[in-house]
Amino acid sequence: MKVSLFLTCLADVVYPASVGKSTVEILERLGCEVDFPKKQTCCGQPAFNSGFHRESRDVAKHMIKTFEEAEYVVSPSGSCVTMLHEYSKLFSEDPEWQERAKALSDKSFELTQFIVDVLKVDDVGAEFHGNVTYHTSCHMTRLLKVKEAPMKLLENVKGLKFTELPNKQQCCGFGGTFSVKMVPISEQMVNEKVEHIEETDAEVLIGADLGCLMNIGGRIERQGKPIKVMHIAEVLNSQA
Amino acid sequence: MGVKIGEGKFFERVDKGINDKFMRKAVKEAQTRLEGRKTQTTEEMGNWEDWRDLSEEIRQHTLENLDYYLDQFVENVAKQGGHVFFAEDAAEANEYITSVVKKKEAKNIIKSKSMVTEEISMNEALEELGCNVVESDLGEWILQLDDHDPPSHIVVPALHKNKEQIRDTFRDKRKYDKSSDPNELAQFAREQLRKDFLSAEVGITGCNFAVAESGTVSLVTNEGNARMATTLPKTQITVMGMERIVPTWKELDILVSMLCRSAVGQKLTSYITGLTATKEEGDVDGPEEFHVVIVDNGRSKILGTQFQSALQCIRCAACINVCPVYRHVGGHSYGSIYPGPIGAVLTPLLEGYDDHKELPYASTLCAACTDACPVKIPLHELLVEHRRVIVEQSGKSSFGEKLAMKGYAYAASNPSVYKIGSSSAPSFIGHVAKGEDGHGKGPGPVKLWTDIRDLPEPTGDTFRKWYVNREKGGGKS
Amino acid sequence: MTTGTIHNKDKFLRKIADQLGRKRRTEKVELPKWSKLPQYEVFDGLSKDELLDQFVLQCENIHTNVVVTTQAELKEMFPKIINDLGGKSIVHWKDPRFDEYGLREALENQKKSGVSVHEWNKDLGKRNIEKAEQANIGITFSDVTLAESGTCVLHSDNGKGRSVSLLPEKYLAIIPKSTLVPRMTQATDKIHEIAQKNGRMPSCINFISGPSNSADIELRLVVGVHGPVKATYIVIDDK
Questions:
Q1: Which residue of A has its CA nearest to B24?
Q2: CA A108, CA A113: separation in Å to the nearest integer?
Q3: What mean pLDDT comes out for the span B227-245?
Q4: What does the pLDDT look like over A185-232, one tens digit per residue?
Q5: One domain, residues A91 and A188
Q6: Domain definitions of chain C by residue range
Q7: How many A/B residue pairs have CB atoms within 8 Å?
């Protein structure tokens, strides 16, 4: 199966190689042929959510073209894949582009969703030792409606001691530009999230969206708490 | 009171909210309890999504044919002896209401809970006339006694107050001398308000849903105050937002069921009352005269726009009860009698952006509200739509943001530019992340980010570098 | 009855139609065929006995005491229940069902034992309201009874004053088992029929589910606010 990786700008620009590398390695281990279209940029969400829809249309067109040849597009982010699914709405007055947008959204999947729903794999043969908890990111859960997939995969990771995060449905306070536009509110939200993470006694917080992880992880670092933040791809790529 | 409440700028109100420890604890507990109860009653239905689909269809159909159903409703009201007044705005509504009260030479007015009367500042208009207007919903009465403290929640208006504060208010204003036990406080309110119910000449209510086919006004309460206000006074005035209508009793069934479950997690509240015009000949209790005032006040200009679905709202507050922003800042921060996600959508539509331009941004777009809404208003999408209007039409977005977004979009649609940006980003972030005091304080958004959080440390190669190396090596790492 | 007045209708409705980008809808609008009708699935196919079980279960949630009895036993049960509710004074509807279910005699007996009993009497006007306001117990029949929500549906008329179920400290509803239906849907379907016949609607239809209550203070439930502080239901097994 041929898969094109949509890395997302955070994994591309802000974070080191690990998340993308893990994604590629897991998919290859599961028998996929992975390529990385180098012209890819960002899903356009920062502009879209800020109301700059003309601008996000330009970004969307670029992304649609970039992935036009792909058989599947897989990304280690529920939020960015959700944005790809929004593209067709952006072109409600442009049937040609809307068609092309729809084609992209139909073949785009979040990583765990792709593994469980498309590859039909529940166990990726990973091993990871430690007390962990998992942050369910909002867009992935509510908009992309991917709830079970990450749980199924984590259940089968050897050595993992999992505790459910209290109030897991609650947003961490990232919200893209919200995190810098509404700092005092975002701060309260992420503080509460960190409190709940601490209640689980987890050494590692796992998540499937780097936006949330950057927010929660950044707050944890600032508070000097001994909790490590990992992307689910990194955990699923861990071997004994 | 008007839609707008409170003083100060948005961030000042937010700051006050965040520092109000009791309020925040109360809101957290309320959200947990209300949301928990709602989830329980909706889960046991087993087909909640079907109910939501049906409710959405009903609301959409009704709005699409609003003129028809309003026409049918008012003709049925009049046919059965009730009077109808269509009010364009607050002034017209108040003028009619005060004229009825004057004609009746009424001095004592009892009210049951109604958001639309808050919206049009009806109490103030009646008080100017010299009337004694008494709120009879327990929460609203508490706020009224406490020098008209604004509501902070549309279903539980005094949510921000604790029982000790309420006891003190009762003591200072009504010589209450018992404890802060909610049972004793409520008992006291019962005794005090009984007298007001019995002496009132006019009862004023809101309207949860009007039924077009029969000219009926329905009221949903637990306390029984709306029943009191419509059983004892000789004149009843009902004030309703023009969108609060259903075609027939069959649709009333659905929406009342959704309202009760979504608002308070009850299958039905203690009292659902359907009132049709005046009492019948030979009836002893009930009003001899019935007036319904149908208020536009900015609603019609929402019709036919991309925001029309906001008018589907049945005022259940389910979105407020799940909102993580409301959770931390409380109702007063929104500066509107309609707080939370629906408030952030509705307030700028009713009042314009000038005084409320921050509201569409006071959301992480987490979509908890959209998921919770029993009539499927896409609340988070409407917030984005507001942002789009602010950017594209009102020109109210800041120059800095415009520049940033245009720059971003240019880079994100031109890979060669993006590449330059992305390859320099790690060293830039490295610089900021390591900043002089150990906590980076960079420029613009980066500074705002690092005010409260660290940035990820750039350790090791970027993905692109790793990928290119691997391609060169030909093998798999 | 004189017809009421309507002010500003045409201007107001025209504006709505304009906003919706069309002419005013004056011809009959048909309701669409809804894609889902989940309300009819609730307790679908349940017998009256099964509905009664559900009803009793729900009454626990709404702080309401339920007594299930037969018509034969009712005469014995009635004074006990009145006594448990503190006796003193009763106000009740003028309703032929009191005779039908043999309660007339029971009420007479109450009177004999010193309890003040007032039957709603339209000729006495406001005096009825005073009586209700002072009464300890208000008694009505249930016209339709909803199993799902533990609700009595009351249609007002001359003999069936609104105050009886509202002003007394305690509320007692007499519920013939035959009035049980699954949920609000069946009650509103019937009311819909009344409306369609185009006659005068009952001026007040109440759906009563237990005693009045409030959670306005710190979200703590207080039972008994403006309406009755206690509600009791007697279900009569009338087949």
A1: A188
A2: 10
A3: 97
A4: 999 999 999 999 999 999 999 999 999 999 999 999 999 999 999 999
A5: no
A6: 48-237
A7: 209
List B336's β-bridge partners, or say none.
Answer: B4
Q: Where are the domains of chain B?
A: 57-301, 420-473
Number of H helices, E strands in chain C: 7, 13
Q: If you measure CA to CA, which chain B residue comes closest to C63? A: B270
Whether residues A204 and A156 fall in one domain: yes
Q: In b/e form, how buried is each residue of C64-79, taking b as 16+ CB within 10 angstroms?
A: bbbbbbeeeebeebbe
Read off the CATH number of the domain in which A206 is found. Answer: 3.40.50.11810
Cα distances (Å, whole numbers) of residue B233 to A88, B131, B238, B439, C4: 57, 15, 13, 67, 19
Chain B residues whose beta carbon lies within 8 Å of the beta carbon of residue A136: none
Long-range contacts of C80-87 (CB under 8 A, 24+ apart): C81/C172, C81/C232, C81/C234, C82/C110, C82/C115, C82/C137, C82/C172, C85/C136, C85/C137, C85/C170, C85/C172, C85/C230, C85/C232, C86/C136, C86/C137, C86/C170, C87/C115, C87/C136, C87/C137
- DSSP annotation of A143 reads I
Q: Which of A80, A78, A79, A74 is nearest to A60 (CA)?
A: A80
Find tokens 């019709």 and name the residue. B303
pLDDT value for B477: 47
Provide, as residue numbers in chain A, all residues whose Cβ is less than 8 Å from the Cβ of B379: none
- pTM for this one? 0.95
Q: Do A48 and B415 lie within an 8 Å CB cutoff?
A: no
The model's pLDDT over B51-75, given as tens digits with 9 standing for 90+, comes to 999 999 999 999 999 999 999 999 9
Nearest CB to C39: which of B253, B279, B303? B253
Chain C from 21 to 50: CB within 8 A of any B CB: 21, 24-26, 29, 31-32, 34-39, 41-42
- Do A129 and A145 reside in the same domain of the chain? yes
Closest among B226, B461, B400, C182 to C190, alpha carbons compared: C182
Considering the domain architecture, whether residues A74 and A130 belong to the same structural domain is answered as: no
| Same domain flag for A6 and A107 | yes
Where do runs of H (alpha helix) occur along chain A? 9, 18-29, 45-49, 53-66, 78-90, 95-106, 111-113, 138, 148-155, 178-181, 183-199, 210-223, 232-236
Distances (CA, A) of B401 to B363, B441, B445: 18, 19, 10
Buried b (16+ CB within 10 A) or exposed e, B190-225: beebeebbbebbbbbbbbbbbbbbbbbbbbbbbbbb
Q: Is B186 on the interface with C (CB under 8 A)?
A: yes
pLDDT digits (tens, 9 = 90+) for C142-166: 999 999 999 999 999 999 999 999 9
Gap from B416 CA to chain A (nearest CA, Å):
8
Residue C156: alpha-carbon gap to chain centroid: 9
Pick from B69, B275, B303: CB nearest C20 = B303
- B227 in contact with chain C, both atoms CB, cutoff 8 A: yes
Task: Look up the domain containing A90 and give its range.
Answer: 2-117
Best interface-test mutation with A: which of B9, B453, B476 has the largest number of A CBs within 10 A? B453
Structure tokens of B309?
Answer: 């679905």
Distant-in-sequence contacts of A180-183, Cβ < 8 A, 24+ apart: A180/B445, A180/B448, A180/B449, A181/B361, A181/B448, A182/B325, A182/B361, A182/B362, A183/B448, A183/B451, A183/B452
Q: Does domain B57-301 have CATH number 3.40.640.10?
A: no
User: Is B454:B464 a contact under the CB 8 Å cutoff?
Assistant: no
Please state the separation of Cα B178 from the chain's center in Å: 34
Which of A66, A85, A117 is a domain's end point? A117
Q: Which CATH number is associated with domain C48-237?
A: 3.40.50.10420
Domain end residue (candidates: A70, A87, A117): A117
Are A221 and B425 inside 8 Å of each other by CB?
A: no
CA dist B179 → B188, C57, C221 (Å): 11, 34, 16
